[in-house]
Design a protein that fits this description.
145 residues; 0% strand; globular
Length: 145
């Protein structure tokens, strides 16, 4: 990787982390209040993260459409797209596990990493458990082949 690529990756990561922090995505209570759609009748539902998702879609949809017209990204020689295209049991199980974890903890990977520097023990515990789960999955996958 070239120094410019490293800088672009760092800048993108910092921008992403700042956006997560500004939007409140690093606050598990805010995320859980958004995910708790059963609280709508009682007035406890927090719809503000829907605006965050809408804003992200306003940027991502045109960017992905534009990227399909390009031979390569701006800071790399080629696009690195997933080779696997079909939906299988592993994808469904992983998606369900992600959703359950997000609903229980109020964290998903990006916001959890962004919240590591904030006070409290929840983000470090979540990230540790997530990394342990990734290592366990890799170990199981290696032995099942």
């Amino acid at each position: 990787m070239k120094r410019g690529d490293d800088f672009a990756a760092l800048a993108a990561g910092l921008l992403f982390g700042a956006g997560l922090a500004l939007s409140g995505m690093v606050n598990p209570a805010k995320v859980l209040a958004f995910l708790d759609v059963f609280a709508i009748p009682a007035g406890g539902w927090d719809p503000s993260l829907a605006l965050v998702m809408g804003g992200a879609l306003l940027i991502a949809v045109p960017a992905f459409a534009l990227s399909r017209r390009r031979a390569a990204p701006l800071c790399a020689k080629a696009f690195h797209l997933p080779e696997k295209q079909e939906i299988d049991r592993a994808l469904i199980f992983g998606s369900a596990l992600f959703g359950i974890g997000w609903g229980l903890a109020g964290f998903c990977p990006g916001p959890a990493f962004a919240a590591l520097g904030l006070d409290g023990w929840k983000a470090p515990l979540f990230v540790s458990a997530m990394l342990a789960g990734m290592a366990l999955k890799d170990r199981v996958a290696r032995h099942s082949i």
